[in-house]
Design goal:
Rossmann fold, 15 strands, 23% strand, seven-stranded mixed β-sheet, 10 helices, single chain, 375 residues, 31% helix
Length: 375
């Protein structure tokens, strides 16, 4: 995967124009490898009448058959034997089923380089120790979810003095303990070291609301950050506007807007989307985003809402080249942001189940019926 290695070593993580040829070659070699080594993926491409050799231009990416996230929740697709996959993670499985995604050593190295490039640009890496509050799962040998591993990984961006988890493992299950988290926040607010948060925005919101209702106010040490990722999941109905969320963070934690950082990604698309200073998710060079019309599934122009199709050559262990999410979004031109980054940015409008999109559901069902090989 020499082209992938070059792509993930590329210095500017948002130079889409300069890295375009490299990105296309990386997708070509990944697609050819998956076709040769993953029978299930080969069956999907053959059924669609698509061969890896058809990837000649960037426009051809739109013709690459996409796999809906529902497929990974029902079938394991590996391009390598399990012994060559040092890491196999699952999705959170809030819908009742969980995806299982494998990563090779090369995949993990590529991911590390990506994170370092983006975090350096966003100034998230620091040698100054800090305390962490994780609005997510306490590590446990039974928990293989990608979101728990990502949250723990973020606590390595700066040396950890302590880690407090909102979801604690007790008596064989996880339980939410906001009282302990609140106590830790009050305690660490008196420290001379920063406090960094990481995890689900829903739990952060519930905690801040609790503090507000109890009249608890703190002023966190300089350098503290509120980092959010993983989406609202089953609490989608409680999701609030960003301005309301940021205002409450200022009120109860003393955090300014610039201290709040958001991430976007998925187990089925392990690319690190980190918001800019204006809180927009610019597309990094390691991926491309297509917005597809829900009825025709054809790409639509920037500024038009549709289904979010994510493309990346990062993962060799599992063929994740083109994945159709259950997110609705809009791709905006870079100029609509004004932060200085020159790549377009993705706005997530909401989530929609595949059962609500007839054309997509029909396509997913047809694929699932044809792919009977479980590796």
């Amino acid at each position: 995967m020499k082209h992938r290695r070059k792509l993930f070593r590329y210095r500017d993580p948002y130079d889409l124009a300069g890295s375009e040829a490299l990105f296309l070659k990386a997708v070509q070699e990944n697609c050819a490898f998956a076709y040769a080594h993953c029978p299930g993926y080969r069956a999907i491409l053959d059924d669609a009448g698509f061969a890896p050799e058809r990837l000649r231009t960037m426009e051809d990416l739109a013709e690459l058959p996409f796999l809906p996230t529902a497929l990974f929740k029902r079938r394991r697709l590996f391009s390598l034997p399990r012994w060559r996959l040092p890491l196999v993670v699952t999705s959170s499985g809030t819908s009742g089923r969980a995806s299982e995604i494998g990563f090779s050593v090369g995949d993990l190295w590529a991911g590390l380089k990506m994170v370092l490039h983006i975090c350096r640009l966003r100034k998230l890496l620091s040698l100054r120790p800090c305390h962490y509050v994780v609005f997510g799962y306490q590590p446990n040998r039974h928990n293989r979810t990608g979101v728990s591993r990502t949250a723990f990984g973020v606590t390595l961006f700066a040396p950890a003095l302590s880690r407090t988890y909102a979801l604690r493992w007790h008596d064989g299950k996880y339980a939410l303990d906001l009282e302990a988290v609140q106590a830790a926040i009050v305690k660490h607010s008196r420290s001379r070291f920063p406090l960094r948060f990481m995890g689900f925005p829903a739990y952060a919101w519930f905690l801040m609301k609790r503090m507000d209702e109890q009249g608890v106010r703190v002023q966190l040490p300089k350098g503290s950050k509120l980092m959010l990722g993983g989406g609202w999941k089953q609490f989608y109905a409680e999701q609030v506007d960003k301005s309301e969320f940021y205002a409450l963070a200022k009120k109860v934690l003393g955090l300014e807007d610039k201290a709040i950082i958001e991430f976007y990604g998925a187990v089925e698309h392990p690319i690190f989307y980190n918001d800019c200073e204006r809180h927009h998710f610019h597309v990094p060079i390691y991926s491309r985003v297509l917005i597809r019309d829900p009825e025709t599934l054809r790409p639509v122009p920037n500024g038009t809402p549709g289904l979010v199709d994510l493309i990346t050559p990062m993962d060799v262990g599992t063929p994740l080249l083109s994945v159709m999410t259950d997110d609705l979004g809009v791709l905006h031109d870079a100029e609509e942001c004004g932060c200085g980054l020159k790549s377009p940015w993705l706005e997530i409008l909401g989530r929609v189940g595949l059962q609500d999109i007839k054309t997509c559901a029909a396509g997913a069902s047809e694929i699932l019926n044809k792919v009977e090989v479980t590796l």
